[in-house]
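Model: You mentioned two targets. I'll fold them one after the other.
Researcher: Yes, keep them separate.
Model: Target one:
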Amino acid sequence: MIEEFKKFALRGNAVDLAIGVIIGAAFGAIVNSLVADIMSPIVGAVTGGFDFSNHFLPLSSKVTADSLVEAKKQGAVLAWGSFLTIVINFIIIAWVLFLVVKLMNQVMQSEAPRTPALTKQEMLLTEIRDLLQREQT
């Protein structure tokens, strides 16, 4: 059973998946930091420091607090500001991932082997072939 587990654990697919998960988690931390530490402050500066995360709608008359944390302790609230913040963060993260994938595709295309230019002999042979095809039709 131990040998069977070794085969499973060290098989290429399992190792590749583990590496992908670890790199994905690290990349997720980078993207989250980009959003929280760079993009969100820029959005806050553009909107005059407006922070949606603390906006809520009380669903109970018992809720009199001014902050979301305190309001949740007092009763039911509709935390629309928190939801809106998460949606904005998702849009920013999706945009950043789109740009990263686009950049990676450009890098991969630039590394793709290019077809060499035709020599004079190859160009002449191509012309002859095309002429013969036209005569046959």
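Model: Target two:
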Amino acid sequence: MHDDPRLAPVDPPYAPEVQAAFDVLMRGQPPLLLFRTMAHNPRVLQRMIAGGLLDKGSISLRARELMILRTCARCGAEYEWGVHIQAFGARCGWTAEQMRSTVHGDARDACWSDEERIVLRLADELRATATVDDALWSEAAAMFGPPQLVELLALAGLYGAVSILVNALRIAHEPSAPRFPA
């Protein structure tokens, strides 16, 4: 495993369109290393920001973040997992057991609700097969409506892509973001 980033993050001063994107995205906070690296291609950075699903969607914050955490964990994207624990973990109320389970456990772990078990199973099956079998789809459709199902699938796809970016570019860990639990 290599730890050296493949592309150095862009340093300030940023091009005007990049600074404008950071201003909207980061709301006064310094831009994350992922975004500074994506700034090598401002068009891709803009599309990435525009395609984000971190607004108030049709699913709960916990369901959204659980899909993101599990997808990132299954993809080995420790960087993005840590960024999401740091940014949303307290609001989601994750316990140490739940954080560990997103990386090392599965849907059978006692720390999850029935809804959360479905989210974990969807994340796992999507990562393993890039589809959902009929039995799991029926269970998910009994718990979530069409808008929620579409959002969960989109999150799995989007964060699979983000995982590819952070892993292939070897984005350095944010200093204050947690690492995968032991």
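Researcher: Noted. Anything on target two?
Model: The radius of gyration is 17 Å.
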